[in-house]
Amino acid sequence: MKASILETIGHTPLLTIPNTNHANEAQILMKYERYNPGGSIKDRAALHIIKEAERRGLLKPGGTIIESSSGNFGISLAMIGAAKGYRVIILIDPKTTSANRALIESFGAEAIVVTEQDDCGSYHKTRIALANRLADEIEGAYRPDQCFNLLNSEAHYASTAREILDDSGGELSVFITAVSTGGQLGGISKYLKTFAPHVQVIGVDAVGSAIFGGRSDAYRIPGIGLGWTPVNLEMSRIDEAYKITDEQAFVTARAFARREGILMGPSSGACALVALKKAQMLPPGERVVCMIADGGDRYIPTLFNTEWITAQGFDTTADMTVVRQMAAELTPWSVCPAADANYRADLVASLEVPQSTLDMNTELLHGREVGVAASRYID
């Protein structure tokens, strides 16, 4: 039977890296989300949120989807909007790659560039605030609101986490993913700590992001980082946190393309570097699963453009030997992330988070336990 494009989301493979993994260390398996039709892990949460919005009558035929996204989530929503017949407006910023913007617009969505920086030196708050204002002004509009909507993490609890545990045969020692807007890390960590509590869960972020605490500063890694700890992430379920520099992330992603034939974006490069670190620390027979959130083809103008890499001052010659040494020298940013949480409940009011999101979260909190962090944003 022929499936619609949306029915092909999920059930992505776990890949080995035989040219990089050494026999005297733990096995690394990469959850390769590029195989989703929109090219990234964001397809999962986007579809889950839209289906729930339709079921609850928040999004009706002829409606408009409005979202703040630097790339992947916006691409997913644009694809879903095209498949379902919705108008889609995505708020992007100057860090959004030309390829990502082109993909958003190729599905017929409108891309609005927000150029005003927020108080953290990024564009997250200004993008979100404008998206919320537009959603309030446009009749029939719906805001998926990936940063504040608990359905983001619910999607990964219900599908991604199950796939990881099932496909690894339950033999899993460490799970690693980028923190992004908290959905994938929050949902998967909740599932693993419920059904496989022995698994060490590690979150990866950019140097310059304040999700795991610390000072906010500018960074070049796209699709990762915030100036606060997101509602979808319960930090007590995270065992360790790493912060990776721009150069480390970009260099690692480039090395994996050449060494393993696996394309990945910079945020996935950051995760892969941490996976190498953990594999070096563990004996053969142990398994480390690393999330590869998307492919690298949409980063060709930057990540795989040697002139651009050179202009950033990054090493263009680093091979996997150099990357493995970088991994060996990594140290965790935090071994108790819960102590470094940077929750900002005041953002609900200042960013004018839609009432539909707050009502949805209240219902989810009432119906099932989602963590102390989320409740702070509701009370």
Topology record:
Elements: E1 14-16, E2 27-32, H1 42-55, E3 64-68, H2 72-84, E4 87-92, H3 98-106, E5 110-113, H4 124-137, E6 141-142, H5 151-167, E7 174-178, H6 183-195, E8 200-206, E9 240-244, H7 246-260, H8 266-281, E10 287-292, H9 306-311, H10 320-328, H11 347-350, H12 355-367, H13 372-378
Parallel strand pairs: 2-10, 3-4, 3-6, 4-5, 7-8, 7-10, 8-9
Antiparallel strand pairs: 1-2
Helix pairs in contact: 1-2, 1-5, 2-3, 5-6, 7-8, 8-10, 12-13
Q: Descriptors for this entry?
A:
379 residues; alpha/beta; Rossmann fold; 2 domains; six-stranded mixed β-sheet; four-stranded parallel β-sheet; 10 strands; 13% strand; globular; disordered C terminus
Summarize the entry for a quick read.
With 379 residues, the chain is α/β, with parallel strands linked by helices.
The class by helix and strand makeup works out as alpha/beta
Spatial separation of the terminal alpha carbons: 47 Å
Give the integer mean of the pLDDT values: 92
Please give the domain count: 2
User: Order of strands side by side in the largest beta sheet?
Assistant: 1-2-10-7-8-9
The CATH class of the largest domain is identified as: Alpha Beta
Percent in strands:
5-15%
Question: What does this protein look like?
Answer:
The chain is α/β, with parallel strands linked by helices and 379 residues long. The protein has 2 domains: 217 residues, Rossmann fold, CATH 3.40.50.1100; 107 residues, Rossmann fold, CATH 3.40.50.1100. Helices cover 40% and strands 13% of the residues. The protein is built from 13 helices and 10 strands. Strand 4, helix 3 and strand 5 form a beta-alpha-beta unit. The longest helix has 17 residues.
